[in-house]
Fold:
Amino acid sequence: MDDKLMLMIPGPTPVPEKALLALAKHPIGHRSGDFSQIMAEVQENLKWLHQTQNDVLILTASGTGAMEAGIINFLKRGDRVLCGCNGKFGDRWAEVATAYGLNVEIISAEWGQPLDPEKFREVLEADTEKQIKAVIITHSETSTGVLNDLETINRHVKNHGEALIIVDAVTSLGAVNLPIDEWGLDVVGSGSQKGYMIPPGLAFVSVSPKAWEAYKTADLPRYYFDLGPYRKTAAKNTNPFTPPVNLFYALQVSLQMMKAEGLENIFARHHRLMTMTRDAVKGLNLPLFAPDHAASPAITAVCPPESIDAEKVRSIMRKQFDIVLAGGQDHLKGKIFRIGHLGFVCDRDILCAIAALETTLQQLN
Amino acid sequence: MDDKLMLMIPGPTPVPEKALLALAKHPIGHRSGDFSQIMAEVQENLKWLHQTQNDVLILTASGTGAMEAGIINFLKRGDRVLCGCNGKFGDRWAEVATAYGLNVEIISAEWGQPLDPEKFREVLEADTEKQIKAVIITHSETSTGVLNDLETINRHVKNHGEALIIVDAVTSLGAVNLPIDEWGLDVVGSGSQKGYMIPPGLAFVSVSPKAWEAYKTADLPRYYFDLGPYRKTAAKNTNPFTPPVNLFYALQVSLQMMKAEGLENIFARHHRLMTMTRDAVKGLNLPLFAPDHAASPAITAVCPPESIDAEKVRSIMRKQFDIVLAGGQDHLKGKIFRIGHLGFVCDRDILCAIAALETTLQQLN
Structure:
C-alpha cells in the first residue's frame, strides 16, 4: 500500500513525526547565532547520550565516515592494529585500516558468533613491547545481530595500556548501555539513522583525551575527516565545513525526545523488544542466528531452515504486510533475514511484525 | 521577526517549499527498488544539469568532501599539481593537496581579482616533460564573488595534454554555463546547498574517462571517498554507504524544477540577478569587490568605504529587514559583505534586498 511501509531494518530506522516536520523547516545560515544555539544544545545532549565528557564531534557522512575518521586521526602509517572481524562491518574497518597502510592483524569469529575476548587478551598480553596502537571493535555487528563483549575486550585493552580502543557503536549507541567514560572508550563512532531516530546523513565520533594525545603524532593523510578542526570549531559551537542544517533540526528534536525518555528506559525498551522478538522467533520454531548470550538489542537475525528461502519471507512481508525486513549480506544473502528493532520502535511494532511473520510462514508451508 | 529570515548568503540558499516538504517524508530503505528508482532519475537529471555523459557521483558530504574526493582519487603521492588561488576556496584545495603529499605549485591572484590564464599557459607550456598531473581551479570563488576564466585556463590545460583539470564548481554549477563535455572538464565538484536549491548534505563529483584512467594508478589512501565503489554501485542505482535518503527526496524535486525551467533560463536568470545587483550597488555609490569582467553570477561582494563597517550593514539588514547577507572571510572580515543570488532567487528578492540596503546605508550615514 502506498506510503504505508513500516521499516524494520537496521537503518534507516523509523523517524518520529516531530523530527520529520523539523526537517521541513527552512535552513538558516550555519554561521549564525541561531545555528550556534542549536549546536550548543545538540552537543550537550550528545555528551549525555554518550555518557561522556569527551568531545563528541559531528560529521556530514555515513557511519563509515565516522569510523574512518575515528581510525585515521589517531594512528601512524605502519602502526600495528588489532581488528575484530565477525561480520560485514568488522571486515570493513579492517579494509579501512589496510587502505591507509596500517599493519592490520585480524582476530575473527564466525559470522553469527561473538568475538572471543580471550583471543584479544592473549595477543595483547604477548605484546610486551607495546607495538599494538589500537584495537578496533564492532560493538553490535549489524550484519549478524551479534553483540560483542566490548566490556571484557576493553578491559584487556586497558591492561595493555598503550593501545587505543576504537569502537563501532553504529547500531549499539542508544540501544544498549555504553558508558564511555566509565569504561574509558577512546573513540566511538555512530550514525544518525540508527538509535538517533533520524534519517541518515550525520555521523558522530567521540574522542578521549588519550586519543587526542595520539592525534598529535598521527600522520595519516586527511582533510575533510581531520578531527582537529572539528574539535576547534565545536568549542565555538560551529563547524569547519557547511553542516546539513536540516538534519541538525531533526537531531535537536530527537535528542530532546531521548532525554525525556531517559537512558535507562531506552535501554530497557530495546532489551524488551529484543527479548520479545527472540522469544517469538523461537516460538515459531525458527533458528536464531546469534546466540542468546551475544544477542544485539538492535537487530535479530533469523536463519530459517533450507526449505524456506529468507528472501521469500522478506518478499511476502513487504508485499502483503508492508513491513520491510533486511536480508542477509554477502554470503548470507538468502540464508537469513534480519528484523530491526532499533530506535523509534515500540512493543506494538514487534507484536505486529511477529504476527505478520507467523502468517507469512504459514503461507510458505 | 521569527521564522521570517530571507537567506541571501552563498549557501545554504533558499529552498522551494516543494523540496522542503519532500524532506519531511518518512525515509525508505536505501537498498530498496523504490530508492533505486529515485537514484536512477536523479542520476539522469544530474547528467543533464552537468551537461555531460560522464559519471556524476553522489556523496554524503559538504562541497569540501566532493573536492577532496575529486583530488585524491586521480593522483599519486608526489605528483606535481597547479592550484589556482585567489580566495578562501582556492587556498583550501591547495591545503587538501598538500595534506595528501602532492607537490603543490600555487598560481595566485589577489583576492577580488581573477586568476590570470596567461600564468597557467606559461607554466604548462614550460612543462615539456609533462610532469604536471592536475590543475585545480575554483570556478566561482565564493569568498570574493570572482568568476575565474575557466574556459581559457582549461584550453591551456588541454594543450598541455597530460594534466587533468579539476574544478570547484560549488557556486557556479546551476548558475553559469559549464558545459563539461564540450570543454572536456575531467573532475567537477559541487554541493547541494547552492544552485541545487536544497539544504546542505549532498556533494557531487563528475568524473571523465580520462580521470578514470588516472584512477587506475592513483595511490593516495582513501576509503569513504574512494570513488571506485561509488561508480560501481551507481551503475546499479545504489550507493556504497547509507545515503541521506531524505535529501535525495528533495534533490529529486529540485532537479525536476530545474529541468522544467531549463538550463538556458536558469543561466539567464542568474545573469540578470547579478546585473541587477551590481547596477544597484553602483547606483548606491558602493565599490564592487570583483571587476565586471570577472563577476560571479552567484554572489556579489561589496566593499564599502572605510567609513562604513560591513558588519554593521549586515547587522541592520538582519535585524531590521530579516535579510541575511554573508560577511567577509579571513582578512576580509568587516571589509566586505556578500549578497548571494544563487539558486531559488527571483528578481523580487534582489529588488527587496537592494531597497533594504539603500535604507540601511541611509541609516548609517
User: Anything to note?
Assistant: Chain B has two domains: 6-12+262-364, 18-259.
